[in-house]
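The freezer alarm interrupted the setup, so I double-checked each line after restarting. Inputs confirmed:
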Amino acid sequence: MAVSMRRALIGAPLATARAAHERLNNWLGLSVFASDNLSSSAYATEAILLVIAVEGSTRLLAAALPITIGIVVLTGVVALSYRQTVQAYPTGGGAYIVARENLGMGWATTAGAALLIDYVLTVAVSVAAGVQAMTSAFTVLQPWAMHLGVAAVLLIALANLRGVRESGLLFAVPTYSFVFGLLLTLGIGIVKVVTHAVPPPPEAVAPMAALGALPFFLVLRAFASGCAALTGIEAISNGVQAFRSPEGRNAAVTMLWMAGLLLTLFTGITVLARAYAITPDVTGGGHGVGETVVSQVAAAVWGGKNIPYLFVQFATMAILIVAANTSFADFPRLSAILARDRWLPRQLANVGDRLVYNNGILVLAGIAIVLLIAMQGNVHALLPLYMVGVFVSFTLSQAGMVRRWLRLRTPGWRQSAIMNGFGSLATGIVLIVVAITKFHPPEAHPIFSFTVDGHPFNLRAGAWLVVALIPLMVAVFYRIHDHYNTVSSQLTLIGFEEPPAPQQTVIVLVPSINRGIVPALRYARAMGHDTRALHIEIDPDDTPRLRDQWEQWSHGIPLLIIESPYRSLIDPLFRYLDEVQTEPNQTVTLVIPEFVPVKWWHKLLHNQSGLLLKIALLFRRGLVVTNVRYHLTR
Amino acid sequence: MAVSMRRALIGAPLATARAAHERLNNWLGLSVFASDNLSSSAYATEAILLVIAVEGSTRLLAAALPITIGIVVLTGVVALSYRQTVQAYPTGGGAYIVARENLGMGWATTAGAALLIDYVLTVAVSVAAGVQAMTSAFTVLQPWAMHLGVAAVLLIALANLRGVRESGLLFAVPTYSFVFGLLLTLGIGIVKVVTHAVPPPPEAVAPMAALGALPFFLVLRAFASGCAALTGIEAISNGVQAFRSPEGRNAAVTMLWMAGLLLTLFTGITVLARAYAITPDVTGGGHGVGETVVSQVAAAVWGGKNIPYLFVQFATMAILIVAANTSFADFPRLSAILARDRWLPRQLANVGDRLVYNNGILVLAGIAIVLLIAMQGNVHALLPLYMVGVFVSFTLSQAGMVRRWLRLRTPGWRQSAIMNGFGSLATGIVLIVVAITKFHPPEAHPIFSFTVDGHPFNLRAGAWLVVALIPLMVAVFYRIHDHYNTVSSQLTLIGFEEPPAPQQTVIVLVPSINRGIVPALRYARAMGHDTRALHIEIDPDDTPRLRDQWEQWSHGIPLLIIESPYRSLIDPLFRYLDEVQTEPNQTVTLVIPEFVPVKWWHKLLHNQSGLLLKIALLFRRGLVVTNVRYHLTR
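Predicted 3D structure, all chains:
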């Protein structure tokens, strides 16, 4: 029954030979891998405005535009830099692979840990933002935000357990709907602004000249928050091998398309938010913010919450779900690579019967759900956790590329090294900015600070956890690595001298004499070694009858009876084994007769001595425990 | 560590040879077995008064005295009747044994079921009443009554897991304190009444002549409730074998002492309750009644809640705990007898390492705790459940004795048969009275009726459950009996024709070639039969290397490689076994190599294929699964 339920949910098994066909063309690749990055535009502008509006002043919102332009330039640099990675590593060039090949295992495991955190947070952030797109349109859903998020993660996990190809088909529509809907909204909005169809903003906005008044730290923090737009830009580089061949070229083309679309959407939203004098809605308090900036922009452009507005909101929700899905492709793939390299439990490298890494999918869904619940489904509480992981992997990946160019010196290596070096430097600086601004002691804040039963909580305080988590994860990786290495060094056949043939002794346990022990006696006899039968005497009254019966049913095996004054099976058996097992090079086979009842619950009516014995003997050396079963028929 | 905790709680194991020494002299025997009966005086008078005061009228309380005298006569008859049982069955003559020998298995199992219910309720009622003795003295404890009850059951269970001799020593003091304290209280009380030191009752009590005004059904119900005094009178007959020899005589003497003491205490309390015009306290509502009648009597006699009063209350609590302990001697003993007769799971017949039936003790404690919680620790809600079981066993036991006398015709059989027949008739009539009055549709009642969240509850409605439970339990007994008989008929060697020697095939599973599989290969080789190695190909890329290595490490065993297109181990293995297992008389040994890590949690880092295989193969016939383990050293 469990099997058929599994089939209905996940589908029939797929053969290994079908693996090569499960590849994506560029259109599907863009929807699967670029969605993470493109969907960042749904919250990046808002992240900038939140810092300025809440910590600075609504009057200074115009500062969002220059900050956005700075981030757009950074995005361009990183995209160009990653384009080189994708072409250099057509079999998949995630930060871990690049660092492993060029920077050594210490940096590689750091990048691996950062990426795993990144993927988990991609799921949490994207799902939370997708749900927020819905609660912006339908405020009645607001109290259920967290539950909707958890349900969404479970659905995406299920889709991925079915396999990647179906995911691609399933998620192409939302990505292109989002791009189309948002481009149309932005286009119409800009036409309206240019033709002065938009009324002047209700409150005066400070002129650009006044921006000098912004404290430098506030600008930095807003910039760091806006860098959320860059998240997911590396997704393609981790999934190059999922593209059709030539994988590198296809992935690089897709990456440039992605960056161009991102820049357009992100800048467009920021420009319109300024033109329509939109301020972020902080009414939600600690339990998720209120209406999103994108929702406000769309409502302003379309003149209310009408059909085109709803199209934009549904498409936003849909692409964010697809973005979460990116991680369901990448996290299991990366953890399988890490597992094969012996940094993670090898179960993560098992390919399930639908050709996906089941265990990775389940682990990812589990952690993302825990995060969503812990952070109450709040996008902007999750974002700070997100950024550290993302920028650590950016910096290491590109630094690795620089080392690669310096080492290989292929044609054009100088320009390539400068490109990657510039990318690494830029993201490294952003990483420092993110770390500094996120480490700044958190003050009370209308969104991140709230009280539960009178205890103050500040969600932003969690950002340092990620910084501490990366070295901790690396330490665990090394523990696991050591274990696998120790095991494999003990299992290697290189230099293995086979010991002399062991001396074989067979002991068959005889609790009482009945038809059920006959197969065990015959089996023990047939093993043809030094064979003996052992009866542990729990009730001395039974012994004379047992001796009588033994004369008929011994099968030529000598019977030994041991007293058990305390009615324990295990203690006398261990003492006897201690007597027998004297040679180091000796194998003792303990044959335990067992009868198997017809119904499993019949077991409850019988003593579980066999099971208890097996557990007690689990760690005893030089001992082979063999159950010879007698199947009851009624 | 679990072992040493167990030792600290329960004590070191005791040898079987010590069993005979764990016997009780008459003084200890009285404290262990008579306490159940004697302690009934703590609640029997109250049970009568509650019916009259609540359903009749406070004015009619004087009716308690004639009802008490009726019950005292009944007690005398039953005690004399049981005295004959005890002498006739010196190895223990509980209702089950007597019915089994004289009335057949149908009645015997009915008596067994009734007794098991009786014992469970003895624990629940006694503990609840013991706690009430405390909450009467210290009203601040009232809200914790149920919790105190549960804690008491756990402590008694622990004492019994340590063994019966220590229980006897531990519980003699409370029994004799209760008898001494209550006799002294009654004596002084009666002296005060006789010398007119007691003021006349504040309200007029109806003269005896007015008792004709009592509805007949009310008298019946009060009589039935008061028969709670008889509970536990049979305890000695179940435990005859725990006495020193001559067991029968010693037990019979102890029984007469017990009956005499009970009559004195019970009558005395009823007389004084009338003299002091005491009415039962129903202020507690559904959550246990308020102050007990014994507490009110003691406070009245001693002139307040002073030191002598507290002595009586503590002694009452203590003897009730000892009474609960009676069942901890009897329930495990009876369930062991039932288990040996194949009516209950045989685990209940296992003697633990402290010479007690551990499993019976644990089952009893568990059910009693559930009952205490379900009935909110309310004595008078538990009593109706109690009575049916008690009187079914009384009636059957004495009817069995009548059949015995008619059969054996030993000297004096006529008088004996009349004595037992009269006892059986009397208890049978009481059983009918109890059943009728308890089946009377329950009306709203200040103690048994209350509402929880607006839903009405009537605790007394539960009494019919016990009547329904007895046949249900008998049905289960027969199911279990059939199972054991079916198994033993399949296991008997009588008429067993041994089949021809089976054809032996050995298959050793080779997941990969390393040092860990060498012991398995040598073991399989040494078994010397038709031996072959099987590799299930999960990843075809590994196969060529495996073939190469096999040339060196084959140990002369041919290697078979099976494809597994869906990367499953189990399906291809089952298909292969289907091919191999063609003969009905064939034994296939599947040797699975397994390496054992140093730390248990290292297991988490390895695939659990071996375990999964074993579970999948659990019910396959003609197959012996053998794990050959390779122990890692680091």
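Quick read of the result. Chain B touches chain A through 72 residues (CB under 8 Å).
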